[in-house]
Design a protein that fits this description.
There is one protein chain. By secondary structure, the protein is mainly beta. 7% of the residues lie in helices and 43% in strands. Strands 2, 4, 5, 7, 8 and 9 form a six-stranded mixed beta sheet that branches. Strands 11, 12, 14, 16, 17 and 18 form a six-stranded mixed beta sheet that branches. Strand 11 and strand 12 form a beta hairpin. It is globular. Keywords: Signal. InterPro entries: Secre_tail (IPR026444). This is Secretion system C-terminal sorting domain-containing protein.
Length: 322
């Protein structure tokens, strides 16, 4: 009799465990987590089907607009008619939105963890520049006089997204570029390029995730480097004359997202955006160079960005909010 009671108890606990599993819905899809954990990344305007890993009696899918900081202030909105086990989303209408599903089954009701619908419009290529302190002078937006004998490393800000690159020393005549375009730098196909000669630098790159999807760096993001024996140069003694510390930011002007930082530092303890009156209008802690800063809520105008690196360096930049 005792053995029978133990068996029945184990059977009952097993039944409760099955019910508990049924009340923990999880979303999956073919490309979920392929590039970024918890995200579906679209190729252009392709669609993707989300589904739960288990079946339930009823479903209601919800959508929330993405926000750059946590907690997200945007509300979750029930999607009309989205009451089946699957939900089809696409890269045109649903990019930069979070999704979750609420399920019911008998006396249980539960919500799934959310996933993010990401996309390449969020990860368009941008270029970051690493200049050696004391060997350069910024003479205009994206224009630098550089000491002869120094070098400048140019980096794709999204090295994990893009694969094969075509680097240019002048603006190519077409997009996509002709394989015989004279602006092409022969053999330069990686995520970065070290420049030692004067030129107007940029690149064309194809995504690794969507090999047929390639993007040309915006003309405004190209970098003009003028190498020469400028008056501020003193490379022969190893001495340097640093100018105002600054980082390359992209795009500038911008209406929504701003990227700032450089790959060699990666992390910044604090990013502060200050208006021309000296008022702090936006701040972000623990910033990574490849993450966007959403400035869409700022009033159009000119702003100062003060960035503090992990090792205590302070950089100052200006940008224009359109």
């Amino acid at each position: 009799m005792k053995s029978k009671l133990i068996f029945l108890s184990l059977l009952f606990l097993s039944f409760l465990n099955i019910k508990a599993q049924q009340c923990t819905p999880t979303i999956t899809s073919p490309r979920l987590g392929t590039m970024f954990s918890g995200s579906v990344v679209f190729c252009n305007s392709e669609s993707e089907t989300l589904t739960t890993t288990q079946t339930y009696a009823s479903y209601q899918w919800y959508k929330q607009e993405w926000y750059w900081q946590s907690p997200n202030p945007n509300p979750w909105v029930a999607i009309p008619g989205a009451t089946s086990q699957t939900l089809t989303i696409n890269g045109t209408d649903d990019m930069l939105h979070n999704f979750k599903v609420e399920v019911t089954d008998g006396d249980c009701t539960a919500e799934s963890p959310s996933i993010l619908a990401d996309g390449y419009a969020y990860g368009l290529p941008f270029m970051m520049v690493d200049l050696q302190p004391g060997t350069y002078e910024e003479v205009g937006p994206g224009v630098y006089n550089v000491c002869q004998g120094a070098s400048v490393q140019l980096n794709n800000g999204f090295p994990g997204v893009y694969g094969h690159h075509t680097w240019f020393k002048c603006l190519p005549s077409s997009n996509p570029p002709s394989p015989t375009d004279p602006c092409i730098i022969a053999g330069a196909t990686g995520d970065s390029y070290v420049a030692t000669e004067s030129g107007f630098y940029g690149f064309y790159a194809c995504t690794e995730y969507c090999p047929d999807q390639c993007e040309m760096l915006s003309d405004a993001a190209y970098m003009q480097l003028n190498f020469g024996n400028w008056s501020f140069c003193n490379l022969s003694t190893g001495e340097t004359k640093p100018k105002e510390n600054s980082l390359s930011i992209y795009p500038n002007p911008t209406s929504q997202f701003l990227y700032i930082g450089k790959v060699s530092e990666k992390k910044y303890t604090e990013i502060s955006i200050i208006d021309m009156s000296g008022k702090l209008v936006q701040q972000k802690k623990d910033h990574t160079y490849s993450e966007p800063i959403n400035v869409s809520s700022l009033v159009p105008g000119t702003y100062m960005v003060v960035s503090k690196s992990a090792d205590g360096k302070i950089y100052k930049n200006k940008f224009i909010k359109k």
